[in-house]
Design goal:
Elements lengths: L7 H21 L22 H7 L2 E16 L6 E14 H4 L5 E12 L2 H5 L13 E13 L4 E8 L17 H4 L17 E11 L2 E9 L4 H4 L12 E9 L22 E14 L8 E17 L7 E10 L9 E10 L7 E12 L14 E13 L2 E11 L7 E12 L1
Antiparallel strand pairs: 1-2, 1-16, 2-3, 3-4, 4-5, 5-6, 6-7, 7-8, 8-9, 9-10, 10-11, 11-12, 12-13, 13-14, 14-15, 15-16
Length: about 425
Amino acid sequence: MRLWCGYGACIFVIAAQCCLALQLDETLSGPDSHETGQGPHGHLLGQWGGERTRLLDRGVRFDLQYISDSLWNLKSVQPERFASWNRFRGTIDIDFGALTEQRGLYFHITAVWQAGGNLGQDLGLLTSPSGMSSQNTFRLDSWWIEKRWHNERITARIGQFAGQDFYGTQHYATSFIFEPMGYALGNLSNTFESFDPPSTPAMEVRFVPIPHLYVKSMVLAADRAPFSHNLTGFVPQFRGAPVSVSEIGFTPGKKASSVRAMDNVETRKGYSGLYQFGASYNPGKFSAPGSATPRSGNFLLYWMASQALWRVDPRGGKGLDATFAYDWSPPSINRNNTLLTAGLRFNEPLPLRIHNTMSLGYVRNSLSSQFFTPGMAPKSENAFEFNVLLDPAPMLLLQPVVQYYANAGGGPNHAVVFGFRTKVEF
């Protein structure tokens, strides 16, 4: 926290507020929990005359943020164009333990307005240059009620939320911009695992049998057209088959109960890592190339690893992190059936007083040959990204990026994309 105080009482109050904020972050982090400073003056509109702090003391946190990805295709077979994807997100988190003495009970609700140009769609890429772009919408995204027992060993959650916010999610997602590394594995949609903002009804149970191991499972409604079936997000739609998603994770050096999706540099201090295996299954009907009869059932398996490789000081965050992920689904019914990602993140490489990272990412998207004419199988698309994340002010994040796509869309062409991400916390 970027604040020093010479009085013991002041330190105690600030520490208590930080602990409460951290507890809310660890419990309720979900969509768009990006890596930026959250100190005592971490909002453009300030502390509302102290009201924000008073509400936080009572377990209520309000957040409004704006994020935009501004991207240009500097080189491609398509005409050069500029695409800007913009998103406003408002979130309310409530810790009923601080508000009403209902220990272990939490509530989360978030809504979004988003619009802009989808450059990945314009260029015909398998790897979207922006991890946010989808469809223009103004809607309630997700809400849930969460209850934890036995010192966070058992957690249950019910409401409307997205599977891809918590299963197959990149642990270092905040450090990348293109989709498979900046959000979740892109082909999780093979089983229609839900994504934000068109979240669907869901319930989840999480169990931590030993301090460094967790097991969790989720059931969600696999709506194949969530944007059109629920235009506002206010009317839950139980459409599609019930998809089950499960994951097991191991994290040496860090309690499994405190590992959350969208983790950041500050919460990854020390030589710690996270190793995950997950699977999703949809019992619905799926079409296969060359067959007039739909097949029953489809599944996807994924393996993910995130590891702190080296630290200048084992107790600090400055150093090098690595990440790797791979998934597979049956090539007979899934066009984009395999995906591989790998990356490195350099924490605080620049001698600046502000938080900064440099990240290098790689994505390989492969298409099943069974969906193409024999002898005409496409190539794997290979995507590379390098970006620099800068936190010049507690309420502002800037992230310039350059991306290169080889065999764009599985074809013979290449593309170069340049741009930047901007985030403002209000």
